[in-house]
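Bug: token stream looks shifted between consecutive jobs. Job 1:
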Amino acid sequence: MIKNTKCECGHQNPVGTVLCEACGKPQHEEKSENSSELLEMRYDGVARRSQRANPNFIDKIWNFFSSVKVAVYLISITLVGAMLGTVFTQETMFVKNFNPAVYYKEKYGTIGDIYYRLGLSDTYNSWWFILLLVMIGASLVICSLDRVLPLYRALSKQKIRKHMQFLTRQRVVYQGSISENGEAWVQQAIAPLKKKGYRVHTDGEALLAEKQRFSRWGPYVIHIGLIVFLLAVLFRGLPGLHMDEHYWFVEGEATPIPDTNYFLKNEKFTVEYYTEDEMSEEFRQRGKMVPKLFETKAVLYKCVDNCNDPLKEPVLEEVDRHNIRVNDPLNYKGFQAYQFDFEQLTRIRSVQPTLVDQVTGEKYGKFKLSMMNPETEYDVGPYHLKLKDKYLDFGLDENKKPITKSGEPNAPAFLFTITGPGLPEDGGQFIYFPFLEQQEFFGQDKLNEALGGINDKLRFDLLAMEDVDIIHSRSYLNIRIDRAMPFVWTGLGIVMIGLIMGFYWQHRRIWLRVDEGVLTLGGHTTKNWFGMRREVSSFLKNMGIEVDEKSLDNGGNRS
């Protein structure tokens, strides 16, 4: 069992220290003083929490996540899972409503059914994939803390005079005699080293020259960037931070965007088709019209008041407008609206029927009746109309009861109760069809029976199809909101900074000491040993010592 030991230099090292944090002497080695084996310089040989001799439960968890091997396994498993998610189309890629349990079996057969049952059809939102991302994030945090804190402590408390074994067991080493006084020679060495960009510290006949220490933090900067990236990816699942949905926007209407305070109005939709001369022979033979350009003239509003009050009209403030085309979206502070599809149709938006006395022919005025969102009560002259029921797509079921066959106003009908002068106290019922042919099709007798006895002797009528507002088209837009994306790019930017720090700079250190006229020099770098060797050779040459740079590898002799 390894116990705390004090180095011969007097420094007390924690358990697990490989090299003395002060003088660099190798610890816990059963080797001779003349050993020439290169030192393990990772993290400068400092002790880490993951190296505790008797770990407790928390330490075991720490050790698990601080292991580079575990991190590689987690990343590999995540990559395999991500690859499985690309075998078949993911559920999130579908625009129309569909039943995935049926779709995958019909589209891909038994394999598709197994794929769906295993949850791979929604891989990237599955609990196990998110758990893997969380574990990778935990590994990055703990792995970084386990190494960066001890390394910072070791580099910030470097001793200038290093142990002889520390110097002679570096990869770049020089030993040779000098004729000058040791302390004077060290002072002369300061200028050429500073010229090469080193920060120089001296202690009598010992010297430490160091440059570009910041490059040592490159890997940990990368870890920070990856952590920010993973957090941003995970936070995209929170409400309000991410949206990728498709909605219909009827021409001439401001439509609310669910889960936001935005309204988008389709002011006008235009489509331009290819002429026969412009189309290929294949399309001409099919007789198919091919759109050349379709555009939504869109206005984006922000709700500033009465946003969630169904009884009040929302107060809207225009924030942006843009003519949306394919690959030319409306873009406002992270809110994006892409042109996806369109539909041309002829559908009633509203009508303004007139109340007429069938006996006298007197007209009492108009009121505006919306197909989708009609008001519940109307006052027309001395009469009061109350909307009792509405049927957007009127029909009768097998029991001859009125039903709405769909949510689209294909065949609208409105059942009113009318009260006023000359009518019974409880009023009379009247069903209004904007399309007169509907009433003719169903017949008054059928309607009386279906609606519990409509007063067919009611002397009033609503003149249909007056001042009709027709919807000619509607636009299908892809609405995207991704407030986490700036953090994704920030994380990737931090990763790039860390890569640049680690790739383009190297942490280089030169230690030297003079003992009774003998110069011992050791050099270390994180990479580019040829450059380090060349730099040491050039420095020695400036100091009047000619040396073959190849001889500096692991203890070369003076030429």
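Job 2, same session, no restart:
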Amino acid sequence: MTSNLLSIGKSGLLAAQVGLSTTGHNITNANVDGYNRQVVLQQTAQFNNAGYGFVGNGTEVSQIKRQYDSFMATQVNNAQATTSSLDAYYTQISQIDNLLADSTAGLSPAMADFFKGVQDFSSNPSSVSSRQALLSSANSLVTRFQGLAGRLQEIGDGVNSQITSNVKVINSYAKQIAELNISIAGLTVSESNQPNDLLDQRDQLVTELNKYVKATVQPGPNNMITVSIGSGQPLVVADKNFELAVTPSQTDPSRLEVGYVMGSNVTVLAENALTGGSLGGLLEFRSGSLDRIQNSLGKVAIALASTFNEQHKLGQDLNGQMGGDFFKIPDPVIGADVHNSASATTVLSAKVSDPTKLTASDYALKYDGTNYVVTRQSDGARTTINPYPQTVPQTIDGVDFSISGTAVEGDNYVIRPTANGAAGLGVLITDRNKLAAGAPIVTGAPVANTGSGKLGAGSVDKAYLAPGNALTGTVTLTYDKVSGSLSGFPAGQAVTVKGLDGNTTTYPAGTANIPYKEGDNFNFGGINVNMTGAPAQGDTFTIAPNTGGVGDSRNAALLAGLQTKNILDGGKTTFQGSYAETVSFVGNKTREVQVSGLASLALLQQTSTQQQAVSGVNLDEEAANLLRYQQAYQACGKVMQIASTLFDVVIGLGR
């Protein structure tokens, strides 16, 4: 009996000792990330049948249980992945928001200064200072475009660098998780006997992994776990870890992509396959915002340069020559897939032909075995190159696609019409005398005319630049009152007449008499003239080359008018309006990501608090446990002391 009492006291003493150790372990790890509170579970020891009844044998520790809730842990990890993704996105796009919204560093003031220079030039076309000021403001505008493009490229390079570092961290965590899987499997004896501290370390690594990429965890055999990312790619399976790799884009070496390593091969993952975490946020920012912003900025640059060039070439400079290209316009960026067949002979070129139809999208060209198909990346719209072989370039969204040669099924290319538009912009004219302010034609009428007919100042369109259309001598139009018509138009050119009612009639070349109604506009060989009033019989009107038109500013006025002309997006918006749309997109997206990030952070804090309520260490509770186990320890010690006293009495009876 005394021996049994001693054993009972000893069992309680040992249980209390384990409780004290576990409580102390909780207290000392209260501030360790990922630590889950541990509790001691006790059970009654096996009893003895003494004949007269069952006599207890004390207590024993059945399990040191980790207070872990897998459902709450999954919620925390998901919230962490979302928060980290939005934080990474916001960090990047807020830089662009600050850049574009800056009233001094943005593009708006540079465009305003440039067109102010054009207006001053229009007011004083013969002034040396106004001409030089226009060239200076043009160079400033180009520098601003290039500066913005350079800053966006720096942000893109920074994204590349962060993608590389994130992949390294992800691979490191995967390796550590696999190693812990091995250790945990080796130390797991039963469901109730597990290495709790190692389990905490592994779960914390999974939480840290979700800061970089969203990871899905599935329990495996022998207390191991399987971790997968993206669209189901395994990152850790039991004791084996797989790796991600950073690889240059197959069509753009300057752009880094994430691939999945399988043996000696790297399979590039789609950018939308890796979601969550800072890596997912970076990839989403680059494809969803950075590319669009670069393309939008390039679209404005190319449209402005193209339309300005077209109008400038319709003017006449101080040397009496037709104007040339004012701006240098970069060609679209074309990237061929490195895996295209070596036997293919495809030659692809692209050129912007209609800036009014430009989009901010990239395009993919792929040969499907029968046809070349162009896919607009922004919405997936597909256009088949037809006919092929081509007789003339095929125009898609204002871009002329010229393709020749043969291809192998699967060969593909990426075309970025506006990606380099801002960075590659330049000013071609350096001689101020070559600024084309005047119009190449001049109209007139002799004072001998007796009617009220008046011929407008006239203008030219791009057809005037075609061979043989430029005026080399004076065209004299004579009015015949009987037939109500004009004669004298060049015999080799058709004449198109547009009336005030909007109706248009084209008369073939060689038509001797062209009917006239007041307000008619005549077009022939790229020359546009408008006539008003009622000419008298025999009245004549002249259209001649503009020789010595130093003070003429008609073309300069048209150049200045481009500032407020709706040109982009199918003639619906101005240059400034298109840029403002980009600024608005960036501002709205920045605010959207910021608000979403704050909401996600609040959710993360809420789920973390709920998890800690179950798994975290409460120091007040642990202090109470210390007192409880201390009292149990002291009480069990008293039991053993009594057992010792009884044993001494029994020994004394035998003396």
